[in-house]
Write a structure and sequence with these properties.
The chain has 7 helices and 10 strands. With 257 residues, the protein is α+β, with helices and mostly antiparallel strands. The chain has 2 domains: 107 residues, no CATH class; 138 residues, Gcn5-related N-acetyltransferase (GNAT) (Aminopeptidase, 3-Layer(aba) Sandwich), CATH 3.40.630.30. The strands form 2 sheets. The chain has a 7-stranded mixed β-sheet with strand order 4-10-5-9-8-7-6, with helices on both faces. Strands 1-2-3 form a 3-stranded antiparallel β-sheet, with helices on one face. α4 packs across α5. The N and C termini lie far apart (39 Å). One of its GO terms (molecular function) is acyltransferase activity. Keywords: Acyltransferase, Transferase. Pfam families: Rv0428c_C (PF24553).
């Protein structure tokens, strides 16, 4: 699970994509052939509002299908985005480029073998199952307003696999770090991991991540995965310290002009 992506690792990509869809579910999911069309009216997250082609050979009627999707996205007030993983047809990507589309963000998908990790024998932070408390903590850590709170609650409540909400709170200053761990069979996903700006580089992130991974391992997960924007060097440095390695990357595309 830790090797860099190779063309014959498409089954690994399919599996990680499948668990990521379950870990962060969109409000509306429809399929056009093997293209997954994900939309969430209440939340602007790119992962929740994009087309994800899932078969390298499925590129028939591309222009027509893209236009159909564009109208569907417009009905939600969303711009049309395509998420290119190694499962996306090369012919489709060439078509996007020829039509003036451009990639604008790259995300690395990282994995680690949990059995090989040195983790604390005990959990410094026990997982909570209080959705509302976790959302409040996440918004406080990120410095966001409460506007998207109902949409986030809907997303978190829709997660089917067992989940643990990890939070570190300062009695004086409130929440300072959060992480969501979703345990899906032998895989565990780390999502919504954040540390308050003023408390970074002080070991808090290491504490929360260690507890989440320890919980995942004792719950039966053998590998963990996460997704991180490729330019986030601080987060990447922390994940490398834990042994996470890149499995593959994906790119978001949008049409310019």
């Amino acid at each position: 699970m830790q090797a860099s992506f190779r063309k014959n690792d498409l089954p690994l990509v399919r599996r990680l994509e499948a668990v990521s869809f379950r870990a962060w579910p969109a409000a509306s999911v429809v399929y056009d052939g093997s293209w997954q069309v994900r939309l969430t009216g209440g939340h602007p997250s790119k992962r929740l509002n994009c087309i994800v082609p899932l078969d390298p050979s499925d590129h028939r009627d591309m222009a027509m299908r893209l236009e159909k999707a564009r109208k569907r996205f417009a009905a939600y007030g969303r711009p049309l985005l395509v998420r290119e993983t190694p499962l996306a047809p090369g012919v489709l990507i060439d078509h996007l480029r020829s039509e003036g589309w451009k990639p604008f963000e790259t995300v690395d998908v990282l994995t680690v073998d949990l059995a090989a990790l040195e983790l604390p024998d005990t959990l410094d932070y026990l997982p909570s199952h209080d959705v509302g408390r976790f959302i409040d903590a996440s918004l406080a850590v990120e410095g966001d307003d409460a506007g998207p709170k109902p949409a986030i609650a809907e997303i978190l409540s829709a997660i089917k696999p067992p989940s643990g909400f990890f939070m570190k709170e300062d009695p004086a200053g409130g929440a300072i770090a959060v992480a969501l761990c979703v345990h899906d069979n032998d895989l565990a996903g780390i999502l919504s991991f954040a540390v308050a700006q003023a408390r970074r580089r002080g070991g808090v992130g290491t504490e929360i991540l260690s507890s989440a991974l320890r919980w995942a391992r004792i719950s039966g997960a053998r590998s963990a995965w996460l997704q991180v924007v490729s330019t986030n060097e601080a987060a990447l440095a922390l994940y490398r310290k834990f042994g996470f390695r890149k499995a593959y990357e994906y790119h978001y595309w949008r049409q310019e002009g």
